[in-house]
């Protein structure tokens, strides 16, 4: 990997918290209305793409003129969501890290589909996460170290039918060689007692959700 970090800003719930995530050397991708958010806050997207069915004609012209690159597609004939289009573009760049902002919102179907996107990056060895005002979400398929940061709770949910060999280090509620199956709530609301914890797994895909109230 080349060390670069790609931030995808899409059209879900956004706020000032999103601006705190963006760093100077990030490659910024605007997906549909997320592109407008970046431009309105003084950023020039490296690329803006989508069907742009959630912006006005005037806003679309602003996005087109303010982006380094611009791709518009027909909303009727496209098979992918705007966020998946942006995510696939980011994967092709082979970055070290991809962060999705605005990927969660009132449309649960879109939110869940965006969480599922993380699997694609994980299986390619790219660190991928979704961040919003109260959560950071990632998918892991190998042992991973987790920093506590500003989050008070960590929940573990299987994204595959089962995840085996789960062992936790530095957590209030330890697990040793445990198995989680879809439908179990055993991994909900754990607490990281140390500044950094270790999650070990043997097989499967594990969804790790760090959250604060």
UniProtKB/TrEMBL annotation:
PANTHER family: THIAMINE PYROPHOSPHOKINASE
Domain Thiamin pyrophosphokinase thiamin-binding: 149-207
Domain of life from the UniProt record: Bacteria
GO molecular function, one term: thiamine diphosphokinase activity
Protein name: Thiamine diphosphokinase
Presence of the UniProt keyword Cell inner membrane in the record: no
Organism expressing this protein natively: Paenibacillus planticolens
Signal peptide start-end: none
InterPro entries listed in its UniProt record: Thi_PPkinase (IPR006282), Thiamin_PyroPKinase_B1-bd (IPR007373), TPK (IPR053149), TPK_B1-bd_sf (IPR036371), TPK_catalytic (IPR007371), TPK_catalytic_sf (IPR036759)
Documented EC number(s): 2.7.6.2
Keywords per UniProt: ATP-binding, Kinase, Nucleotide-binding, Transferase
């Amino acid at each position: 990997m080349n060390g670069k970090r790609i931030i995808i800003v899409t059209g879900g719930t956004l706020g000032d918290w999103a601006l705190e995530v963006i760093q100077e050397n990030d490659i910024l991708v605007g997906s549909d209305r997320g592109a407008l958010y970046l431009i309105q806050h003084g950023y020039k997207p490296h690329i803006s793409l989508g069907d742009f069915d959630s912006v006005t004609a005037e806003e679309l012209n602003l996005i087109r003129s303010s982006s380094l690159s611009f791709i518009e597609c027909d909303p009727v004939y496209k098979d992918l969501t705007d966020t998946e289009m942006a995510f696939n573009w980011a994967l092709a760049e082979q970055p070290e890290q991809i962060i999705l902002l605005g990927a969660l919102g009132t449309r649960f179907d879109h939110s869940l589909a965006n969480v599922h996107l993380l699997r694609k990056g994980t299986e390619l060895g790219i660190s991928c996460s979704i961040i919003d005002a109260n959560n950071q979400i990632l998918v892991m398929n190998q042992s991973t170290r987790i920093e506590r940061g500003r989050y008070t709770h960590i929940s573990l949910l299987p994204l595959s039918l089962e995840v085996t060999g789960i062992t936790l280090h530095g957590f209030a509620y330890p697990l040793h060689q445990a198995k989680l199956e879809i439908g179990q709530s055993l991994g909900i609301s754990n607490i990281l007692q140390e500044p950094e914890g270790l999650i070990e797994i043997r097989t499967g895909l594990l969804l790790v959700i760090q959250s604060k109230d």
